Amino acid sequence: MRLVCAILILFLFSGFSQAQENTTKLLAQAENTIYSDPKESIRIAEFVSNKSDNENELIEAAYILIRSYYIQGNYDEALKVGFQFSQDEFQNADDTQLKINVLLTRILKELELNELAQKFMDKAISASQRTINPNTLNWFKGKMIEYNIGPHSEENSENYILKLDSAKREFKKVQSTKHSFQIGLIDLQIASIFLKELKLDTVPYFLESANAESRSLKSGNFLEMMYMLEYGKYFFLERDHFKSIDALNVAQQLAEKFNNISIQHSISEILADNYLALGNVDDFTRQNKITTSLENTINEHEKNAVNTAFNFTSDYQGTVLTKAESNYSLILKVFGGVFLVVLLIWQLFVWRYRIQINQYQSFIKYFDSKQKPLETVPSVSTTAKSSVIPKEMKDILVEKLEEFENTTSFTNQDTSLSRLALQFDTNTKYLSEVVNSHKGKNFNAYINELRINYIIDKLKNDPTYLQYKISYLAEESGFSSHSVFATVFKQITGIPPTRFISILKSKKEMLAENN
């Protein structure tokens, strides 16, 4: 009997060991495919999450999921998994929870939820004080340096590069081949700095350094995609537009493989700029439509991610309040909740504003000097089916409209059909009919076109207007908000105001160089 029990126990133990070994192999396979096939990594990690009840395996699978979603640009799903596993307590998992909190910090900073990002950075710092693993500590030091000097840092570029070099040294101390990815990304960041400063002679060195690191990974990896994207930018600034397009097409294929909408949008923007510089209007128009579509998708995805962060914060605060002492008053709870909502909504609006203002400013520096200037297409007059206006009155109103167009009265925000009719000593019906029949558009479209043409004239002829913010240009031309101004501007000219301003700036730079 004892022998039978011993055999049974041995059989069960060997089965358990075999299952654990299989899970370890699966997690290793998922880890090795994160940067080349994140979809496969997600599939494996989700399988382990559903089948395993081992805490260490669960949190390792969670970390793989978060990184894979991040590589795809799927911040919403990354936050959902990350929030869950950053809050739960796992024994002997400080190193992995530290890394999860660091990645959550990165994602939240990119969403500009900086206060919430700081919360997770504090948790990561606390976890780092408990770890004794030198590889983890070196990795963490590198990440601390890298993430604290993000793209919105006020440091000058020289100090920025010095810090990036310092982060690279920390990653090289990590006893693993996985540091190649981190080092390659830093080389690309340095190359990006030199691109923005137009120090093009230095760029190829860092691009090739990043490419060398990418070759240590599986072909078609995320680092290779980013390398081709930066090379596309480099060739664009060198005005070798055909090479730029070739590099960007390779990057686009990889971005589609990763399903990373954000990277696809960046690539599409520069492709459109190349077509514009080559004077290829059809391809520019097609690519510009793709860029706009991708931008709308990005806004929706990031909105979902912000909502996920907001829901997590609300749930977390609710749990804290539930555990608090009963003498906390209801009004304090309501006030705290309202304050949190206002804070997060404010941060969301700031984020959306910065996206709209900065989305076209990074890459457009030079355009073909033969590019034709944008013109407003004249409207074709339509004949009213039946007119009750006396001819003399109609002639007077047409003359007054011409005089009105030669003033700047239309930039007044209170300009309306009724106010202008009163000013012209007529009624709204007469004035509306004259505008429709002689201008080929309704009154609002007529006023909007005058305003846009007015501000375009200012932008072309007064260089100081190129430095003004969109909100100022909107107010100057008579619009109630910069968002309405941007929408109307694009409807009339076919491109956003920020891109129009960039084109004018680059033309002036080219003229200055030629002179």
UniProtKB/TrEMBL annotation:
Database matches in Gene3D superfamilies: Homeodomain-like
**Where are the membrane-spanning stretches?**
330-351
Q: Which InterPro entries is this protein grouped with?
A: Homeodomain-like_sf (IPR009057), HTH_AraC (IPR018060)
Q: Which UniProt keywords apply?
A: DNA-binding, Membrane, Signal, Transcription, Transcription regulation, Transmembrane, Transmembrane helix
Q: Which Pfam families match?
A: HTH_18
Which N-terminal residues, if any, form the signal peptide?
1-19
Boundaries of every HTH araC/xylS-type domain copy: 391-503
User: What domain of life is recorded for the organism?
Assistant: Bacteria
Q: What SMART domains does the database record attribute to this sequence?
A: HTH_ARAC
Q: Name one GO molecular function term.
A: sequence-specific DNA binding
Q: Which PANTHER family match?
A: ARAC-FAMILY TRANSCRIPTIONAL REGULATOR (PTHR43280), HTH-TYPE TRANSCRIPTIONAL REGULATOR EXSA (PTHR43280:SF2)
Protein name per its UniProtKB record: AraC family transcriptional regulator
